[in-house]
């Protein structure tokens, strides 16, 4: 009796046994293996999973925009009762934009760089027959204003490269909602943005979709974010739905082992710093998120709490005094302008502890890292490593400093040479610093691989054969090759999936207690700070606005800016029964 | 923008001086006495020879010859060829013909090359793509005179739809076949360039976003794929225009086109320094202007380049 059903009782989107595969030279490789998802009108549903779980593929399959050789191999995608999988491309073009809006992941690459913002918004409005003639422009301005873009009418004439990431994402949200679609698919819409910007944009998206009555299908890797933003949760793992239901229920009482691990590893939900000596962390696995790699950050953090009272040797490894860095930049008409990236920054790091530098992009935290590593010269101020000023070092002495201090960078894909095998990559610093002979270097590589919990067979493999987490372990092994005292970690876990992130954080904590390392941990993610750092410096516009111990910062933040950052952590306000 | 153009013109001055000097020096360094060669087997009267040497400043050292020539150039005087005709007149007679030929070739290769490349790129791996790749490979590997002779025989002699040689006024209809032959190699290159560029652009995120907005294919292809794919093609077209002017020598020879190629060839054989340098000077000037136009065209195609300037 479907006649008696009102619109609100009928699912807006019903995915039944959807299968998606990619055609490769070795035949069809399945990416989504028979999933079922039901979304009611006006509801918000989040699909959570790590990279490769099939969540984005599902999103693209719904609007039939699968990349490359991907195609739907079975099942139904019922939108308002109509099977989208059976539509021709021409019919599908009527559905896209008009009935189903789409907000993509990366605001940097999703706007065409050669057309103005206004052109790209107007084109969407015209294509969906929302307005015509002069009304198009009016409508475009309204859409952008709704999406939270101030002075939209003047900024319409500008080009994407003149917009910040947050503003571009607003434009993309505006475009996605421009024809008041009944369903909006948001594929990691804020993963490329700072937490505070993320919060503002998601709040705005929530208000907008509620006002219009648009249902939202939200794709994310962040469990905290999903639970905070969606009523319904679908957890995907290796192309299958492993758990689905109301968000709070899943978070408080996860049934599937994968979900349980996901909840335990979410840094935004953990409370205290990891202490590596705990027995729970003795079994680091290299098989990524596969069987048994159970890392419980909450448990680990509690172990830490007991140890925290233990006395420290009070000795400073790094002392930074009124450090300033001024960059010359090109102004509007080519004249030189000065930009203070780091402004009178002072801090010190005790030996064997972790100091976190936290801030949004542009706050100057990465510049501090470069100054510490002497990859940039400071404009003024002083940096002492082990009590010695590093500014006058040159030649052999500078090489000595580099031996003592090693970096690990954010992107595990960009920081390893694809033409060099893992063993040679790890041995390279030894070669540069002329340490040992061939045999002893080989032995050291094996030892390092063991330290970062990778099998020694990996030494002859190449970076493209490794996963992101494995690559980051290799980067850490390379940094440790020279037995440094200090490791500068610049967003070292930001690009990793939560479970992998938790493993790397645990590994770092273990290595610290084993080798007595001093860490400078640079991140935009306060949630991670809580589990890794002892001291925190919050940076804003080149200055340190707050410096204190982790617990102080989290429990009693003094500055409004720090409070904003804390509030912006997704899932920060969720309380778990577990 | 005017400041940018002005800077570019200033940059062109040393390029201009350098190229003319080099060319003049190379013609000067050619073995043999150009005047003696002019008399063939006969022994010239020494007095006449000395008079001719003085008239063409051939009795002066190289650097003086060059300076005299450059001085004349600045006053708009390109000198007089050995046949007694002012070089300016030869230029005025031959350049329009060659430029007409080059522009026709440029139009053919641009329109056909981009169209075929675009279709190939959008239908990667299909029959059209495969056959266009084979054809372009054949065109690239064949020497241009082979293509010219085959075209001349097939269309001129066999089918009789085109004239085998061009008449002295070189009207546009008669230039179509030589222009097509001249365009063939560049056409093949443009097909390949456009195809690769289109294939790459098609996979970019903003193209998916364009589709997700509800745009039709007929709009996404020209607006979001083609325009973004054109920058490497424009670079190639800019350099190719110079090649068309010079490469016309062979084609002009085969089709008997009364253009720069023939005249320049004769002048080189005779070792006429001023004439050769005059031709090259004009070519360098054209080349510089075309390159400036290409750079300005970049700005039109890509606003990011426009705003950096």
From TrEMBL, chain A:
InterPro entries named among the record's database cross-references: AAA+_ATPase (IPR003593), ABC_transp_ATP-bind (IPR050319), ABC_transporter-like_ATP-bd (IPR003439), ABC_transporter-like_CS (IPR017871), Oligopep_ABC_C (IPR013563), P-loop_NTPase (IPR027417)
Record-linked Pfam families: ABC_tran (PF00005), oligo_HPY (PF08352)
UniProt xrefs under SMART domains: AAA
A biological-process GO annotation: peptide transport
CDD domains named in the record: ABC_NikE_OppD_transporters (cd03257)
Name this protein carries in UniProt: ABC transporter ATP-binding protein
Family to which the UniProt record says this protein belongs: Belongs to the ABC transporter superfamily.
Keywords linked to the UniProt accession: ATP-binding, Nucleotide-binding, Transport
TrEMBL record, chain B:
GO process terms (BP): transmembrane transport
GO cellular component, as recorded: plasma membrane
Superkingdom classification of source: Bacteria
Membrane disposition: Multi-pass membrane protein
Keyword Transmembrane helix: yes
Keyword set, alphabetical order: Cell membrane, Membrane, Transmembrane, Transmembrane helix, Transport
Span of domain ABC transmembrane type-1: 95-298
Cleavable signal peptide: none
Main localization of the protein described in the UniProt heading: membrane
Record keyword Transmembrane present: yes
Membrane-spanning ranges: 12-30, 101-122, 134-155, 175-194, 233-255, 275-301
Subcellular location: Cell membrane
Family: Belongs to the binding-protein-dependent transport system permease family.
Protein name, as recorded: ABC transporter permease
Record organism: Cryobacterium tepidiphilum
Origin organism lineage: Bacteria, Bacillati, Actinomycetota, Actinomycetes, Micrococcales
């Amino acid at each position: 009796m479907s006649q008696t059903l009102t619109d609100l009782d009928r699912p807006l989107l019903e995915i039944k046994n959807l299968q998606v595969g990619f055609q490769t030279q070795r035949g069809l490789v399945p990416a989504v293996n028979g999933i079922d998802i039901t979304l009611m009108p006006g509801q918000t549903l989040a699909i959570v999973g790590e990279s490769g779980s099939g969540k984005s593929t599902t999103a693209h399959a719904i609007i039939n925009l699968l990349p490359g050789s991907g195609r739907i191999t079975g099942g139904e995608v019922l939108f308002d009762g109509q099977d989208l999988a059976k539509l021709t491309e021409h019919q599908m073009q009527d559905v896209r934009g008009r009935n189903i809006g789409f907000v993509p992941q990366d605001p940097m690459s999703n706007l065409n760089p050669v057309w103005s913002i206004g052109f790209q918004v107007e084109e969407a409005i015209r294509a969906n027959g929302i307005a015509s003639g002069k009304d198009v422009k009016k409508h475009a301005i309204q859409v952008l204003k709704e999406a939270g873009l101030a002075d939209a009418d003047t900024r319409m004439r500008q080009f994407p490269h003149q917009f910040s990431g947050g503003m571009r994402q607003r434009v993309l949200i505006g475009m996605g909602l421009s024809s008041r679609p009944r369903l909006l698919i948001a594929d990691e819409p804020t993963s490329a943005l700072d937490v505070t910007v993320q919060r503002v944009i998601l709040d705005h998206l929530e208000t907008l979709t509620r006002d219009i009555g648009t249902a939202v299908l939200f794709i994310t890797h962040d469990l905290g974010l999903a639970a905070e933003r969606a009523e319904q949760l679908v957890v995907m793992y290796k192309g299958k739905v492993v758990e689905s239901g109301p968000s709070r229920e899943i978070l408080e009482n996860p049934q599937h082992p994968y979900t349980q691990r996901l909840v335990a590893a979410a840094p935004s939900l953990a409370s205290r710093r990891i202490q590596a000596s705990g027995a729970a962390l003795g079994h680091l696995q290299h098989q990524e998120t596969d069987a048994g790699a159970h890392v419980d950050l909450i448990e680990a953090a509690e172990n830490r709490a007991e140890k925290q009272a233990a006395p420290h040797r009070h000795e400073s490894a790094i002392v930074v005094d009124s450090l300033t860095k001024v960059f010359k930049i090109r102004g509007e008409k080519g004249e030189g302008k000065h930009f203070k990236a780091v402004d009178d920054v002072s801090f010190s790091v005790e030996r064997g502890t972790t100091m976190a530098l936290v801030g949004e992009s542009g706050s100057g935290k990465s510049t501090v890292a470069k100054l510490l590593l002497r990859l940039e010269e400071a404009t003024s101020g002083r940096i002492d490593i082990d009590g010695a000023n590093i500014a006058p070092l040159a030649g052999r002495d500078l090489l000595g400093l580099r031996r003592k201090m090693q970096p690990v960078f954010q992107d595990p894909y960009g920081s390893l040479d694809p033409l060099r095998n893992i063993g040679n990559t790890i041995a390279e610093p030894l070669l540069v610093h002329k340490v040992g002979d061939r045999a002893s270097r080989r032995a050291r590589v094996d030892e390092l691989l063991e330290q970062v919990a990778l099998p020694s067979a990996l030494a002859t493999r190449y970076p493209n054969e490794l996963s992101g987490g494995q690559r980051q372990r290799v980067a850490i092994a390379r940094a440790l090759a020279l037995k440094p005292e200090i490791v500068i970690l610049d967003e070292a876990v930001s690009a990793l999936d939560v479970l992998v992130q938790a493993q790397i954080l645990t590994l770092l904590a273990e290595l610290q207690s084993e080798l007595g390392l001093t860490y400078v941990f640079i991140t935009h993610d306060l949630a991670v700070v809580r589990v890794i750092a002892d001291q925190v410096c919050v940076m804003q516009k080149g200055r340190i606005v707050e410096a204190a111990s982790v617990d102080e910062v989290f429990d009693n933040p003094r500055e409004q800016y720090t409070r904003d950052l804390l509030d912006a952590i997704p899932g920060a306000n969720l309380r778990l029964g577990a | 923008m005017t400041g940018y153009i002005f800077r570019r013109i200033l940059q062109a001055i040393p390029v201009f001086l350098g190229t003319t000097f080099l060319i003049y020096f190379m013609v000067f360094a050619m073995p043999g006495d150009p005047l003696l060669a002019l008399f063939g087997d006969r022994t010239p009267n020494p007095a006449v020879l000395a008079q001719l040497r003085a008239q063409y400043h051939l009795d002066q050292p190289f650097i003086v010859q060059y300076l005299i020539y450059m001085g004349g150039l600045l006053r708009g005087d390109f000198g007089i060829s050995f046949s007694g005709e002012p070089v300016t007149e030869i230029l005025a007679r031959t350049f329009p013909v060659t430029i007409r030929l080059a522009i026709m070739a440029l139009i053919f290769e641009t329109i056909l090359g981009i169209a075929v490349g675009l279709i190939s790129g959008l239908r990667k791996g299909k029959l059209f793509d495969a056959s266009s790749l084979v054809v372009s490979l054949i065109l690239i590997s064949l020497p241009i005179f082979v293509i010219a002779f085959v075209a001349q025989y097939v269309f001129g002699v066999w089918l009789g739809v085109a004239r085998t040689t061009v008449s002295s006024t070189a009207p546009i209809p008669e230039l179509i076949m030589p222009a097509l032959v001249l365009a063939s190699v560049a056409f093949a290159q443009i097909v390949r360039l456009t195809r690769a560029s289109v294939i790459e652009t098609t996979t970019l995120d903003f193209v998916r976003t364009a589709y997700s907005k509800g745009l039709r294919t007929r709009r996404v292809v020209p607006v979001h794929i083609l325009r973004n794919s054109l920058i490497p093609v424009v670079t190639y077209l800019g350099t190719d225009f110079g090649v068309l002017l010079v490469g016309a020598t062979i084609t002009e020879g085969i089709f008997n086109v009364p253009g720069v190629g023939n005249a320049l060839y004769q002048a080189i054989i005779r070792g006429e320094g001023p004439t050769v340098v005059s031709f090259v000077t004009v070519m360098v000037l054209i080349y510089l202007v075309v390159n400036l136009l290409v750079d300005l065209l970049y700005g039109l195609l890509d606003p990011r380049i426009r705003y950096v300037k």
